[in-house]
Amino acid sequence: MFKKILIANRGEIALRVIRACREMGIKSVAVYSEADELSLHTKFADEAVCIGPASSTLSYLNTQAILTAAEVTNADAIHPGYGFLAENADFADMCKNHGIEFIGPDGAMINAMGDKASAKETMKAAGVPVIPGSQGILQSVDEAREMAAEMGYPVILKATAGGGGRGMRVVYRPEDISMLYEMAKSESGSAFGNDGLYLEKYIENPRHIEIQLLGDSFGNVYSLGERECSIQRRHQKLMEESPSIVVSQSLRKQMGEAAVAGAKRVKYVGAGTIEFLLDKHGNFYFMEMNTRIQVEHTVSEEVTGIDIVKQQIACHAGVELPKWMGKIRLRGHSIECRINAEDPGKNFQPSPFLIESLHFPGGKGIRVDSHIYGGYQIPTHYDSMLAKLIVHAQNREEAIDRMIGALKEFIIEGPKTTIPFHIQLLENSEIRRGKFDTHFLESFTYDPSRE
Question: Are residues 232 and 361 in the same domain?
Answer without folding.
Answer: yes
